[in-house]
Records
---
Amino acid sequence: MRTIGQAAAELGVETHVLRHWEEVGALAVLRDSHGYRIYDDQALEQARTVLKLRRVGLSLPEVIAAMAPKKHAAQAVVRAKIAALEQEVVGMQQAITFLQHTVECRHRYLDECPACERFVRAT
């Protein structure tokens, strides 16, 4: 059993983050006889899962849905996030391609370059 401070330190987050996760329903925490939060191994593991899902880009509503008891609903949220991340990767790759071209471009100004013009018009 851990206090909220101990759990937060172990997870590397602030205590207000754990309180917020509990308030929005992303985390279930036990209370002692005085009403203080106590984090058992299960609550800590749940918090680790929330933290990992947040770090890979899910919003808290998405985290809650991804942790839903119904696997089909959880998978739908995760699939949607995968698709969004794949789109971000495509966009980043296009940005890298454009920037690499601008570094190697033989034209003094980008607006003199037909290839740069095509990149600009494509976005």
Note: Residues 71-104 form the longest helix (34 residues).
---
Amino acid sequence: MTLEADILAAFPAEVQIPARLVADAVAASSAVTPRMLVVLDDDPTGTQSVSDLPVLTSWDVEDFIWAFGQAKPAVYVLTNTRSLDPAEAAERNEEVVRNALAAAGSSAAGTGSTGESNLRLGFVSRSDSTLRGHYPLEPDVIAATVAEVTGEKTDGVVLVPAFPDAGRVTIGGVHYMRGTGEDAGKLTPVAETEFARDASFGFANSDMAKYVEEKSQGRFAAESVIVLDLNIIRAATDPQTTANAIADAIAPATDSTPIVADIVTENDLRALSLGLEEAERRGKKLLYRVGPPFGRARIGQEIRKELSGAEAYAGNTPSLAGGLIVVGSHVGVTTRQLKALTEQHSAARIIEIDVEKLLAAETETAADDYLNQTVSTVVDALRGGDVIVHTSRLLIKTDNPAESLRIARTVSAAVVAVVNRTLKTFPPRFVIAKGGITSSDVAAHGLEIRHAIVRGPMLPGIVSLWEPVDGPAKGIPYIVFAGNVGDDQSLADVTRKLSNTF
């Protein structure tokens, strides 16, 4: 570990930049033809940094027309590609981009007198702040699809994995994780954390240029990566001077050149956003591969204060039933959060889905019988209070990435079945889903959410609340809780806000 203060001493201090300055720059560029960012979110936790934006869990042309009709600067599309194999992920990215472009060009989305679309789209590939996911495959597919459909070639792919609210920062081109507790103020290169040993998306480099070379298998050499370090991000106290410096640094980018940005604070993200806006004004065509807070900064949205329990239920009458907390993630922080919740919430019923038993079921009927028994137990428990449903904590590992994904899907399908059957039998007061794949599948299939509005965070900068606007879960607050964020008390804190028995 290294002290953050020691590393930052070599760079300029951050420059205060109001969100309104970015919003005004975005508005100016959209004055003639409005622009909307389409965020392809590889799991639903990318919404935790934004508020009052539409979310789609399906991506037919009609779904995009609904989203575009909300007249917001961005829409999040829940692709869940982190749970898919590369071929499936590529196919899904292409389908989303094609349908978004078709919707933008449709008469329902609005066209000018010449027949040209009245809506410009920008594309964001949102992924993990700990560098797990299908890179460079996803931005490659987005760029290729945009080029095929529109003829527009991508000059640069901007990588911004930083997530300061969750302790992930990039300094000097190196991506770090901040320590907590006794290790507060210290930084660990992300390649030295448990996330780098991910069975499906492991990696060896914390230096972002070297990470790009590693993941692209040498297609992009480390020395070809443009690095926007803090000397550029904080080039001057005048925001326009900084924006020009960033745009100048990006100018050489061509043919999807990777561009890495240092980020430590929200002000850094806003400075970067001004620079990207200037680069695009000059004609650069950019795609983005980013962590959660980038979208907020890029559209000039203020940081939304955490929602209270009353705000979570605003406009809806809370059920008297218990709430349902579903935990699928196996990372260390999730296990600690689950332990804290179960120790503090003595009134909650704890029900485990036995993964080994599920995987060992000899027939689909046997597995289904086991799930039906679990649902019956959950429903009975909800009548008396909150229920915590978690998968067994023994993580079944394999050296085969494809097999790892298959196991993850099997487990997630079981969780989804339990949630869906419970919802149709006895709707809970609220639903919290812990873990990226878990929360995605619970949203799209367990709760059958098609369209939602992300209202804001339940904790400062992290953990988003969705309001389903259709389907059987309409009116039930849905909390998307990433597996790798928060401290040991965070799950208990969110549950306490929503519960009527905690």
Note: The radius of gyration is 22 Å.
---
Amino acid sequence: MELIADIFLVAGALGAGLYCFVLSRRLKRFTDLEKGVGGAVAVLSSQAEELKKSLDAARDASDQSSATLNALTERAESVAQRLELMMASLHDVVPQDEAAVEVSAEPEPTPVVAEDLPQTRDEPKVEDEPAAEPQSKKPGGLMFLRHNRSEASA
């Protein structure tokens, strides 16, 4: 009986040794840096580093864009306030009547006719063209309306 037990014990030890040998080879292939999971882990690690660098660059660019946009927004708000003040000051200006504008306009020059001038030289006659009337029609009515911001949020 002891002999049979020893044979089973040796057979078990040889089986365990063979299993360990096969497992060792598989583990070496698994952790190989070129073909196995080790290589995949190394590639993923380098890609993660590159992604982190590009993310940092994108964050820096967005921070700069945000700062520029904030500065432009503040500038636009100040310009809008000045424009609103100018528009409000235009309401104080009284528009002139069209009749008063026509009376104050300069009279049109009369064209020179060749018969009215004495014929002393053989120079070409130049007739003056009537000057175009400047249009001084002012817009009437309210163009912009300033809303109170406290009323808009309520």
Note: The mean pLDDT is 76.
---
Amino acid sequence: MERIPVTGDIVRYRGKQGLHAVRAAIVTADVTTLDPRGVEIGAVPALDDASHVHLWVFTPGQLGGFHEYNVSPGDSPGTWHWPAAAG
């Protein structure tokens, strides 16, 4: 069974722009922690399924990061994946 991400998990996010850099990210919402009232009033996007998450993506520099919403798993730009296991 594939592991489902939960709020607080550290994942890797592949950027959608430029060199598609891979960055560290933290899961800020999953299907069990997403507030349905926030979705209803349009304050936060819905998630398509249990493998999709909202992320805070960490970046170097003054801004420190950015939000990404309803991110699916994968290896293509704009997706998240688990970090490689420590060897």
Note: The two ends are 22 Å apart (CA to CA).
